[in-house]
Design brief:
Protein name: Sorbosone dehydrogenase
Structural class: mainly beta
Pfam family, one: TrAA12
CATH architecture: 6 Propeller
Number of domains: 1
Organism: Candidatus Muproteobacteria bacterium RBG_16_60_9
Radius of gyration: 19 Å
Strand content: 35-45%
CATH topology: Neuraminidase
InterPro entries: 6-blade_b-propeller_TolB-like, Beta-prop_PDH, Quinoprot_gluc/sorb_DH_b-prop
Length: 348
């Protein structure tokens, strides 16, 4: 069950000087993905427990939560584009047209694409329409570590009607968050690396796609410069694209966004805000935070803490799952551990 609003750990959240966190919405079971509609509606996806898509409407400073779809199969991936809400499960992608005008009586979903593999391991989606107008959809590895079939371990893109499917990234294990640099149009994505090798290896990654369709990011043969002991034999890690940044062992990078607002200081203009959900199988808990990633003129990435404080006595107080830049420049952060959404603002 979601945590009661007055019990949420918002006072535990630590931020850089001048920033403030508040509870923006609560009682949203399994709150995961975030997207904002043209009229300000915030759509929220869920995963294991709820199987729902929510719409959060702001009425005079108070948030009303509506359920617009339910009994779905792991509907983690959502995108809003030209009045329509796209919803991705491990099996398919559907579209709800003119959704903001019909929140109380949602239209029947239109099938966009029904040929996804349907795997549960690493099958839940994070989807986004790119600057090329195409819908980007990942298909993760169907395993912890294996030589995946040709249909997996890739990010694909397709036309908005589901046609013209093509691969743009290979050698990806499990991405649950990516975004496009608003300056260059380049795709950046997080990748969750394998388990059961070591508590401290391999390191999860932030990757930069500079040659769509031509880069292989190493899975299952290499994680960065580290050859996999099972599948790395005969493979030189130098032949694969290198991570732009390392995010820690089993950190579980999820949702991420380039900051396109103006509320935050100049330092954060163009930075990436990225959630680290935190390890599920590491003895020492860490992460459960939001990091800021700064990219210099040469494309080099530097990772700094931004939102922290949600790990206490080796337990998670909350677990950030996605971020979204609001139209006013504030930052929303979903917390699926508590079924809540926090709002981050800045004021001198």
């Amino acid at each position: 069950m979601p945590t009661a609003a007055d019990k949420l750990p918002v006072k535990k959240i630590k931020l850089p000087q001048g920033f403030k966190a508040e509870v923006w919405a609560s009682n949203i079971l399994d709150a995961r993905g975030l997207r904002q509609g043209d009229n300000g509606t915030v759509f929220v996806s869920s995963l294991f427990v709820a199987g729902k898509i929510y719409a959060v409407v702001d009425k005079d400073g108070k948030r009303e939560v509506k359920t617009i779809a339910e009994k779905l199969f792991l509907p983690n991936g959502i995108e809003f584009h030209k009045g329509a809400l796209y919803v991705a499960t491990p099996k398919d992608i559907t579209r709800y047209d003119n959704i903001e005008a019909n929140l109380d009586s949602p239209p029947a979903p239109v099938m966009v694409y029904d040929k996804l593999p349907g795997d549960v391991p690493h099958g839940w989606k994070f989807i986004k329409v790119g600057p090329d107008g195409k819908l980007y959809v990942p298909v993760g590895a169907p395993c912890n570590i294996c030589d995946p079939p040709a249909t997996h371990s890739q990010i694909f893109r397709m036309n908005l009607d589901g046609s013209g499917v093509e691969s743009v990234v290979k050698g990806m294990r499990n991405t649950v968050g990516f975004d496009f640099d608003p300056k260059t149009g380049d795709l950046w994505f997080g990748d969750n690396q394998r388990d059961w090798l070591s508590e401290d290896l391999p390191l999860d990654e932030l990757n930069h796609v500079t040659q769509p369709g031509k880069q292989h990011f190493g899975f299952p043969y290499c994680a960065g410069d580290i050859a996999d002991p099972e599948f790395g034999w005969g493979h030189s890690c130098k032949s694969y694209a290198k991570p732009a940044a390392l995010l820690g062992p089993h950190a579980a990078p999820l949702g991420m966004r380039f900051y396109t607002g103006t509320m935050f200081p100049q330092k954060y203009q163009g930075a990436i805000f990225l959630t680290r959900h935190g390890p599920w199988n590491k003895t020492q808990k860490y992460g459960a935070d939001v990091v800021a990633v700064f990219i210099d003129a040469n494309g080099k990435a530097k990772v700094e803490p931004f939102l922290t404080g949600l790990v206490e006595k080796n337990s998670y107080l909350g677990r950030p799952a996605d971020v979204m830049v609001m139209k006013d420049g504030s930052l929303l952060v979903s917390d699926d551990h508590n079924g809540a959404i926090y709002r981050i603002t800045y004021g001198k």
